[in-house]
Amino acid sequence: MVSKRCYGLGTARSVIRELFEYGNQRAQEVGPDQVFDFSIGNPSVPPPQAALDELERLIRESDPLVLHGYTSAQGDRAVRERLAASLAARFGHGYGPDDLYLTVGAAAALCCVFHGLTEAPGDEFVVFAPYFPEYKVFIEGAGATAVILPPHVPDFQIDLAALEAVITPRTKGVLINSPNNPAGVVYTPQTLRGLGELLSRKSEELGRPIYLISDEPYREIVYDGTVTPWAPDFYDDTIVCYSYSKSLSLPGERLGYVLVGPQVAGREEVYPAVAGAGRTLGYVNAPSLFQRLCAACDGLTADLSIYAENRRLLTEGLGQLGYDTSLPPAGTFYYFLPTLEADDTAFCEKAKRLDLLLVPGSGFGAPGYTRLSFCVPTQRIQRALDVFARLAKEYGR
Amino acid sequence: MVSKRCYGLGTARSVIRELFEYGNQRAQEVGPDQVFDFSIGNPSVPPPQAALDELERLIRESDPLVLHGYTSAQGDRAVRERLAASLAARFGHGYGPDDLYLTVGAAAALCCVFHGLTEAPGDEFVVFAPYFPEYKVFIEGAGATAVILPPHVPDFQIDLAALEAVITPRTKGVLINSPNNPAGVVYTPQTLRGLGELLSRKSEELGRPIYLISDEPYREIVYDGTVTPWAPDFYDDTIVCYSYSKSLSLPGERLGYVLVGPQVAGREEVYPAVAGAGRTLGYVNAPSLFQRLCAACDGLTADLSIYAENRRLLTEGLGQLGYDTSLPPAGTFYYFLPTLEADDTAFCEKAKRLDLLLVPGSGFGAPGYTRLSFCVPTQRIQRALDVFARLAKEYGR
């Protein structure tokens, strides 16, 4: 009686969500201090004070009919001007307001891009494991096919030969996510240069651009002086998708954008196709109050020192316990750790019996790893190290 | 290189949007007082003070990590509990939190329902003219077909015989919009009773429910003591779509819901399919701050007395000038007026030459009519009556 695909998606059990619900239940049984939940990627640091101040100011000083009113479908023009100026100041390229399409978060941005670019069933988008599982849902929802490349261990940079081998005349685009959820890796300039060269060559062979879609909600969440390279510096035909969920700790407010810069080939077709996709998916405009807020706060971040401290504690503590911490995350708030046995699901089950809630890497297309979300109170990490020690002992470490 | 359909939607000229832009341009040329724009359905009355107070209170008193954090995909549970209690108190039926799926406005609600219900290409949804033109975009976006029934003039109630004639084994649902944009009509209990009986009979014949989808963002915007009947009282298999855009004057904030009540046959399939559709369309959760706000303000409205006064002025003023005001709107803030010549586009062109901006009924599937949005400052209506008089004179009235 209903769409089989939608019904399946609506009833599918999410491993992450189930772990999280289990953790809440266990917390009631044994007390919240005895459950060590590292399942969910929900920011744990409040929004920057400047953003909270701006929210108050907007509400106090704006005409509510304007502040909460419809904006243009692509976003309020003054907002897009302000945001484009900020992006141009940060990254160059002379971005302008007509390059930006504001969206209901990065998920909407990606859906608009996949729907906008897909010409016919069978069109392909390449995705690198480990990857955020909803990518596949979004690509298939657009009627296209996700071509998943296995993880390039141990550094999780791009295996260019493997990529070249899967590019076909059906390849519409290649999706990257750097800083990466769940691997925490940031693509190096060298990786992006190689990727750009390969895509340029293959685009020339095909006689049309293969678009690089750069999903970068963790762009500013980086450590130890890492700077996330700006993907359009390495490949002209890059479409950037962004969300303020993580940088400003506003995940529930759903504000992001698609950036189709002036260098993108066929941008006079791509931008309207993205906007038209938004229209047919039922996106009328991105939420109007947070359009203003995010444009005013572009480039700011929540207090990253807390995440940095959590990362340091995990690297030191887990390393001493015999876990492999040789690749600490360069960005995001996820630690991607090799499991102490090959079967990552079995490993996470053992951890779960100790009330230590970790997500198996298999769900991200990377068996043999586990993801720890360290956007949690620092105390939880300090206390969890004892439990990690007990777990390591089970494996004779 | 891109999706033809999305590109077409992204470049299509919207008659309403073009009129609105033209009005802004003319205002700069001849002064804003000399342009009489009745094109856009953007609320002109501020949100109720209680809603603005609640917004301040939420921001002042809530933990920002919770207030702006992810909620469940279907909406925060406490929000859904509060909203379901409000709906149950207003309309009965024992609604509960698990009957509600919160959405990014009514457009998203409709898209989730059409995607969730469509099993195969060629599935049909019946729509009654005059109708909001995006309905067709949303239905076709789900891979289904919109079957448009011509307007039932002059009262715009439902012609049950005409409806029965188009119901086939492919009919998945029937969409109603009461109070109606653009006709302003509210379906009577008699209309809904007849509709319910017909759909029950046809569902029995087909051996499965034909769903009634009731899009009712104007539910509370009614005049002269009109009460919008509650569609599920007349037909069990009714899925209600709602938005707070109009009632609370918050159109830019994108908050609405789908209600799949306990009486709906197959609700254990329909609700997950709606939620799964939201997932594949890229809706993560409805904006979190306004989830709280709208649940707290459910049932409130902006000050309708201003719209009522505008409606009275138009009924009296236009009637005296020889326009047919025999069917003033029972709800909404739209006046649907028979044009003074059969060609409604020519009529609106003549009006435009007088800087009187009216939308032709043809765009809503109802030639011979024009839509006036009277969500405008009352003064504009008072001054526009002179222009309406000049227009009537051109037709010898």
Characterization of this structure:
- The structure is a homodimer of 397-residue chains.
- Chain A is of the alpha/beta class and 397 residues long.
- Chain A has helices at 4-11, 15-30, 49-61, 64-67, 77-91, 105-117, 134-141, 160-166, 189-206, 267-280, 288-297, 304-320, 344-353, 378-394; strands at residues 36-37, 100-103, 124-128, 145-149, 171-176, 211-215, 238-243, 256-260, 334-338, 356-357, 359-360, 369-373.
- Chain A has two domains: 4-48 and 302-394, Aspartate Aminotransferase, domain 1; 69-297, Type I PLP-dependent aspartate aminotransferase-like (Major domain) (Aspartate Aminotransferase, domain 2), CATH 3.40.640.10.
- A seven-stranded mixed sheet of chain A has the order 2-8-7-6-5-3-4, sandwiched between helices. In chain A, strands 9-12-11 form a three-stranded antiparallel sheet. Chain A has a two-stranded parallel ribbon with strand order 1-10.
- The first copy, chain A, is globular and about 60 Å long.
- The model of chain A has no long low-confidence stretch (mean pLDDT 97).
- Chains A and B meet through α1, α3, α4, α6 and α7 of A and α1, α3, α4, α6 and α7 of B.
